Amino acid sequence: EAQVTQNPRYLITVTGKKLTVTCSQNMNHEYMSWYRQDPGLGLRQIYYSMNVEVTDKGDVPEGYKVSRKEKRNFPLILESPSPNQTSLYFCASSLSSSGSNEQFFGPGTRLTVL
Amino acid sequence: GQNIDQPTEMTATEGAIVQINCTYQTSGFNGLFWYQQHAGEAPTFLSYNVLDGLEEKGRFSSFLSRSKGYSYLLLKELQMKDSASYLCAVIGTDSWGKLQFGAGTQVVVTP
Predict the structure, then answer these.
(1) Taking 90 as the threshold, does the pLDDT of residue A61 lie above it?
(2) Above 70 in pLDDT, residue A32?
(3) What is the interface size between A and B, counted as CB pairs within 8 Å?
C-alpha cells in the first residue's frame, strides 16, 4: 500500500531532551516536507526537500533540523525541544515539487514538550 | 511572503451548497491547492488550480482568478461526511518547494 508513515504517533517529552520523528514513504517520491499544525494557525511548513541531499527552510525552521540521506526517509530532529514546539506534526511527500503534484500526508505525530 | 485568508467556519444543511472563499496576496503565483482534513486525520488532496477558471470534480469544484488573487471551493449536495476543515494552499514563486496554507475553514453540515 502506498503510504507515508511517521513514528512515533504520540510523544510526551521534557524540555531539552533531543528527539527524532521519523518519516518514510514507499512511493519513490522526490519531494518531502514537514509541517506543524497549531489551532488557528493552520499548517506551517518547517523544512522541505526537493531530492536526496537537498533540503531548504520553510516558514518556521527555528529549533528544527532535517536530513535527506536517502529518498524514502526524511527525519525531523529537535535538538533541544521547548514547550513552544508542542504541536501536531505532519510529514508529506509528492512525486516532485512541480506545481500540480499533490502532497500525500502521513498520519501525524502529536508532540507534547513539558 | 504570502497572506492567505479564508473564513474560520461555515455551517450548511445536508443537501445544500456551500462556497468557501480563499484570497491570497503573494509576490508570485505558481498554483493553488485545496485539501480536506477531517478531525484528527491527515489532510487529503481535493483540487489544484493554476489557470483561471473552474475545475469540476464530482460534487466538488474549484475556481481561480489570478488577477483578483481569489479562489473558491464549491461543495454541492452536501453530505454529513463533508463536515471537515478545508485548507487553501498556495505555491509562490520563491521556490517550487514552498507551500503556504491558510488557517482552514471548518464546515459543519447539519441534518
Answers:
(1) yes
(2) yes
(3) 63
